[in-house]
Structure formats: C-alpha cells, structure tokens
Amino acid sequence: MTRLWLRLEWRRRGRSAVVLALLIAFALATVLTAVAGARRGLSAYERLSAATRPSTITVLPNQPGFDWDRVRALPMVEAVTTFAVAGFSLDDPAASADVSAFPPGDDHIFEGTEEPVVLAGRLYDKTRVDEVLISPAFSRHFGRGVGDQVTLRLPSPEEARPDSAPVPFTGPQVRATVVGIIRSPWYVDPAGSSRGGLLVTPALFAAYEKNFVGPDREGYVNALVRLRGGTGQIEPFKRDLAALTGRPDIDVWNNVAEGDRLRRLIAFESVCLLLFGLAAFVAAVVLIGQSVARYTAAAAGSLKTLHALGLTPGQAVRLVPGLPASSAAAGSLVAVAVALAASWWTPVGTASLVEPAPGFDADVPVLGAGAALAVLLVAAGSAASGWLALRPTRGPGPRSSLVAAAARLGLPVPVVVGARFALERGRGPDALPVRPALVSAVVGVLGVVAAFTFANGVQDAGSHPERYGQNYQLIGFLGFGGQMFADPAATLRAVGADPGVTAGATATVGVAQAGATSITLFGLHDAARPWRPVVTQGRAAEGPGEVMLAVSSARRAGVGVGDVLTLTGPRGGHGFRVVGVGFVPTGPHNDYDEGGVVTAAGYERLLPPDGFKFLMAFAAVSGDPGAVMARVNAGFSDGMGLFPPEPPVQLAQMTGVEPLPLALAVFLGLLALGAVAHALVTAVRRRRHEMAVLRACGMTRRQARVVVLTQASILALTGIVAGVPLGLLVGRALWGVVADTMPFFYRPPLALVALLLIGPLTLLAANLLAVWPARLSTRTRVGHVLRTE
Question: Is residue 778 a contact partner of residue 770, using CB atoms and an 8 Å limit?
C-alpha cells in the first residue's frame, strides 16, 4: 500500500516534491552552515592555543643588554623567547610602512612557547639569513606565498637607535625567500590590520645586530615568557624579577587576559551567527511547514476516499509522510554537501584570524544531527497535519476578545471580519496560521529595530573618539627611556598659546605594579587649561594619593571606585584611593583601557620623574586639528611635534561585528514579510466560503478588499506595538555587551530615524503585500463557491 501510494503521489505531485526538496536543501544548508561555522569559531582560539603553547606574559624591561638567561633560570619559567624592539621595511611599492614582526633576539624562538601552526610551507631554518615566515594577511596584501622572494631594507646602525627620528631606512638590503605561512596567539594578524607581518630568522638578527639595536647595542630586547603555573605564577614571577633586577617597574603584559578579551569578542560573533542560524531554522519551520501543511490538506481528500474503501485512520496517518519525508531526505543530502563546501569560508570575523586549520571542515555531529532532524520534523509535521486534516471538526475555534470588542463598538463589518482573519485561527480546513504570522511580524520588527539601534551605537563610537578615551585630537612624544627630547613646560606653554587649543597636558609615563597586574601610570603635570581623561565612573585624580584606573586594569586588579589599591614602584609601595574608572591615552605599552592617571605628585611617590619610560603631550583642539598641528609643530625641531592619535584596534574589531546583526535583521525582516504574505493568501483561500456568504449578503468588492487590508494592517500594528520596544531593548543590550567587551564608553544608542520610519514602512509593506490577495478575494465566483460548499 505504501509503494502504491508513493507512486500515485509522485505522478500527481512530483514537481511539488522536487520544489519541497529544494526548499529544504536551501534552508537546511543555511542553518547547518551557520551553526557549524559558529561552533568552529567558538573553538578556534582554544584549538590554536592547544597547538602552539602560547606565552603567558610579555616582559618589557626596555633596558639595553638585559640578561635573559637569568630569567630563564627562574623556577616558574618554562620557556623564554626574545624579540628585538626594532623594525625593517619591505622594498615593495605596496609597502608604505614597517611591516615586520619583531625580529627574534636569539635562537630560542619556537622553543617551548609560541610554537606556531604552519598554514603553508614549513618553518624556516634558524641558521639561514635568506628565509622568512609571513602571516596570512601579509600573503593576501602583498600577493606573496611560499616560494616567493622579498627584499628587506634594514636600518643603518644610526637609524636603529631608540631615540632616532623615523626616516626611510638606508641600511643594507637582504633578499629572502618565503618558506612558510604561520599563526600563533602572538604571531596573529590583529583585526583591522591589512599588511600583516613578516618574521626574519635569528641568524639575520645575529648577522646584522647593530642594524637592529644600534651601534652600541643600546636598543631593547624584550621577551615572551611561558610560566609553568599559568597566570597564577605572574605575581611570584614579578616579585622574583624585581629581586633579580632591582627594578619593580618592569612592565609585564598578561597575554592570557588579552586572549580572554579575544575569546569574548569571538563568542559574541559566534552567538550572532548562531542567532542567524536560529532565525533561518524558524523561517524554515514556518514556511516549509506551511508547504507541508498544504500538501497534507491536498492529500487528505484522496485519503478520505480510500477511507471509505477500508483504509483505517492509523494507516492514513502513516501514508501521508511518505513523499514529504522522501523530499526531506533528498534535500538534506544536498544541504549537507552545500554546508561541507561552505566550510572553506568559515569561521568568519575575528575567529578567522585565529583559526589554526583554515579550509575544509566536516562538523559531523552538526551535519548528521541537522539532516536527521530535518527528516524527522517533516515526517512528524506531515503526520500531525494529516491527522488534523482527517479528523472531524467540532465547532469554531476560540474567539478573540479584541474582535468581540470591535463588534460591540459597531465598527464596520469589513474591519471586524479582517480582525477575525488576523486574530482568530479557526478550526478544520478553514484554520489560519495566525500565531506564526503574528510572531513573525513581531520578530521582524524587533530584528530591524535592534539592528539599527546596534548600528547607531557603532556609528556613534566611530564618530566620537571620546567613546574610547580620545578626547584629545593631538598627541606627541617628548621623551623616551629617561631621555628628554623637548622641555615639557615649554612645550605646554607653546601648545597652550595656540588659539585653537582648548586644553592641554604633559604626562610622565612609567609602570607600577598592583599584585599580578602591571599598570602604566600617566602622571599629569599642572596646566592653565588642563586636559582631563574620559571618566565612566567617579572623577579624575586630584590629590597625590588618588588614582583613576582604566576599566580593564580596574577589572584585573579587582577594585572599583572608593577602594584603596596598593601600587608599588622603585620608591616603594603606597596606597592610592581609586576615585574614578575610565579611559587613558594609548601609549606604546598600553591600550586605552589599560593603565591609570595620577597627579605629578602622585607619580613621584612611586617613580622618579627622571626615570620615565615616555614623556607625552596631549592637546584638545577646536576647529581643524590639521591646522592647529601645523601651527604648533612649526616651533619643533625636525622629527618632533604633535600628530593625530591612531584609532584603537578594538574599533576595527567592532566595525567587523556590525554586519552580523544587520544580516540577521534582513533575514528576520524577510521572514516576517514571507509569513505575513502567506497568512494573507491563506486567509483568502481558506475563508473563501465565508467571503462568498458575505458577498451574497451584500458586501461589495471594495469592502472585500478592506477585509484583507485590515488583516494586513493588524498584523503590522501588532509587530510595531510589540516589536519596537523589544527591539530597542535588545539593540541596547547587544551594544552594551560589545561596549563592555571592547570596552567603550556606553551611551544608550537611539536610532531615531529608524524608529520614526519603522511604523509607516511596516504598514506600507504589509498593505503592499495585501494588494494581490485583496484583488484575488474580489475575483471569487460567489455562486460557484456556494454550490461547491
């Protein structure tokens, strides 16, 4: 009987079965690709870490001739690999700036820590000077791969001095061959970086050491360190390092914490991708489910005929899923093949920068479970629809109180009937997909409002640099490593004298320790029109015993406004009251969310003013910063002056996140339009008998069109009333998560234009969708329908 039924159904509805299989293939491929891509992205950083033994900390003494062998001998140290704070350029028309990864300072590179995965080629021979490794971004930007050659331009020994002005390098040229493309947590392309990096061999550094660290080796060699006990050993390591060197001010970066921030960003992107997959799944259930229901309703007539010949209800219900389940099985196979092919382009976003094995990937659990679930859902849905279609109907469905209220108020009959079509499901063959249409309308409006609200937050941060602490337009370096290039007091007077400068400051920068956390401190000098940092909580430091901490440093130190934090420097340890949390200027050794700001007197309690790491100047200007910069810099010597600050890497990461919610909103909007259109067409077809009776009682063609337009308007209004406030809340919540992850100053976004337009556009779209169903309702032949019924 099953074979006979399938043969009959294939002859009658074979084309519909093929179309159903293609719909299932498209929808399931979208879902599987999104879910598998999200899972792959979520695990990318962990898999990279497991394969590369990442460093725990970066240690930056910035001291010529620092003895790293003594650090290697510390008991908690597992591995040390050094790098020179030096660069070189690439003789290539596309290379306008330094493209190097820091050259290795000894032949311990890739030993015990940061052992990179090789994406193509091999690791270089450390003893050769003519081999290099590159990052994936370098390969894409410069079009170089394994086997290609590059020409490196090294600085001259004088140009390699730490205090030398940045000039085009004029040192020797080295011709080298690219032998591999690598990736590790340290050797990874940051988001927003297009040029990537190139890594030379230890042999090249040894052969041209003076070209990297200067003629008297006054350059700096810092190191990546892997600790045996992980981050729990950072504080003991810093104590031992201070005892070993006599310097408690050595900057120590927590690389694990930086990795955690990257994980949070990847997690947010993956959640967005999962939500996209969920939206695709809901769309498939709603739209394909309706197709299956229509097929079942059509098949029910034949089954009722067979029922008169002895077919039992149980046999009928078992027969119905045969053809839809076969279509689902065929579509699932195609979907799995498409998802496997799409894996070459996953993961996406930030996760793609840390994926240790890019290319083809088969997520068997997701693909197998997804294909099986698709077949099961189609079979179960068609069986349930068949059971509902075959059972006798028992009276009308539940009534809507809103429709009853409209009738009591005496609203026109077309309006009341349209409200019934929109809000009352009915029973039996006349049942309408009311709830899916209402939910889809709400979700569609919610998604669009949430996406534009989130996008408003992104645009606000991009156009207002003060959201990430840059409430100054010019910055300059007046000293480095204890050597002063310009007098800070004279510089501040010169900068403050410019009419375009509204506030200015100079700061001495050093490093203090707060347990396991190194904090870059900015000691602000007094000024007539002082510059103040951006504060998210509390206020700026005003007394010598006060500190304003950057948000990430406060989080890592475990303190907040009002707490007392013990900071330690070369002059001992002192308690500082945390009076504010916010953002600090970005420096060579800190991001805008790391560090702290104290007064000059507070700085000198911990650090000697002549032992600074950096001496910096800031200026907030009104008008054109370029014009102010030109006037101010006219008084500086060559190579010195103020310049615009660079936006942080986090801004590029945030911009990369923005398309995901927008893509989700587009998908949800299309889902809503499809569900509303289906509800309107279904209402016209399934309630044609009711419309024919009303037409026979005197309803005009115009009033029949009003019925459909009223139904569409009520669906749209439901979406607006519920979706707009929910979308605003969801969009602000999403932006709050991103602002906290990056972090940025949180300002509640408000997409005012979108909020003003979403109502009219939703109503317009719904009524445009209703035009064809409304016209269809007026073309029904009343007498033919009534005779048939």
Answer: no
Tell me the residue length of the chain.
Answer: 789
Q: Domain check: are 607 and 691 in the same one?
A: no
| 493 and 426 co-located in one domain | no
In the numeric block, the tokens 């910055």 are attached to 475
User: Does 413 share its domain with 503?
Assistant: no
pLDDT on residue 8: 67
Task: Identify the pLDDT of residue 68.
Answer: 95
Q: Which sign, positive or negative, has the C-alpha torsion 760, 766, 768, 774?
A: negative
Which residue, 546, 653, 563, 658, is CA-closest to 597?
546
CA distance 14 to 10: 4
Number of domains in the chain: 4
- 730 belongs to a structural domain: yes
Q: Are strands 614-621 and 596-599 parallel, antiparallel or unpaired?
A: unpaired
Element containing residue 288 per DSSP (H, E)? helix 255-308
Residue 631 lies in a domain: yes
- CA nearest to 631, candidates 520, 498, 480, 788: 498
Same domain for 266 and 234:
no
- What is the per-residue pLDDT for 776? 77
Q: Are 356 and 51 spatial neighbours (Cβ–Cβ below 8 Å)?
A: yes
What is the 8-class DSSP label of residue 563?
A: -
Do 695 and 629 fall into the same domain?
Answer: no
Q: How many CB atoms lie within 10 A of CB 396?
A: 12
Going 611 to 614 to 620 to 624, the CA torsion angle's sign is positive
Q: Which two tokens stand for residue 462?
A: 């991009």
Contact (CB, 8 A) for 538 and 571: no
* Token digits of residue 746: 């949180």
Residue whose entry in the numeric block shows the structure tokens 């045969």:
322
In three-state secondary structure terms, 96 is: coil
Provide the edge-to-edge strand list for the sheet that holds 77-84: 77-84, 221-227, 57-60, 251-254
SS3 content of the chain, % helix, strand, coil (to 5): 55, 15, 30
Boundary residue ending a domain (182, 215, 249): 249
**Which pair of structure tokens corresponds to residue 48?**
């990279």
Q: Check whether residue 268 and residue 338 sit in a common domain.
A: yes
Give the rounded distance of the alpha carbon of 387 from its chain centre.
Answer: 45
Q: State whether 671 and 753 are in the same domain.
A: yes
Radius of gyration of the chain (CA): 34
Q: Is the dihedral of CA 337, 340, 344, 348 positive or negative?
A: positive
Question: Look-up: residue for tokens 């406004």?
Answer: 561
Which string of DSSP letters, residue by residue, matches 645-668?
PPPPHHHHHHHHHTHHHHHHHHHH
204: left (phi over 0), alpha (psi -120 to 50) or beta: alpha
Place of tokens 């200026």: 619
Contact 707, 479 (CB under 8 A): no
> 219: domain range?
62-249
Q: Which residues of the chain have pLDDT under 70?
A: 1-2, 4-14, 92-101, 163, 165-167, 191-194, 290-291, 294-295, 297-318, 320, 386-398, 425-433, 638-639, 779-789
Reading the block at residue 353, the tokens are 């920068």
pTM value is 0.77
Q: Count CB neighbours of 760 within 10 A.
A: 10
Residues 6+ apart with CB under 8 A from 518: 238, 250, 251, 252, 253, 254, 511, 512
Closest CA to 390 of 306, 480, 317: 317
Q: Decide if 440 contacts 685 (C-beta within 8 A).
A: no
d(CA 136, CA 199): 12
Of 192, 219, 249, the last residue of a domain is 249
Please count the other Cβ atoms lying within 10 Å of the Cβ belonging to residue 626. 12
Residues 89/169, Cβ–Cβ less than 8 Å: yes
Query: Does some domain include residue 651?
Result: no
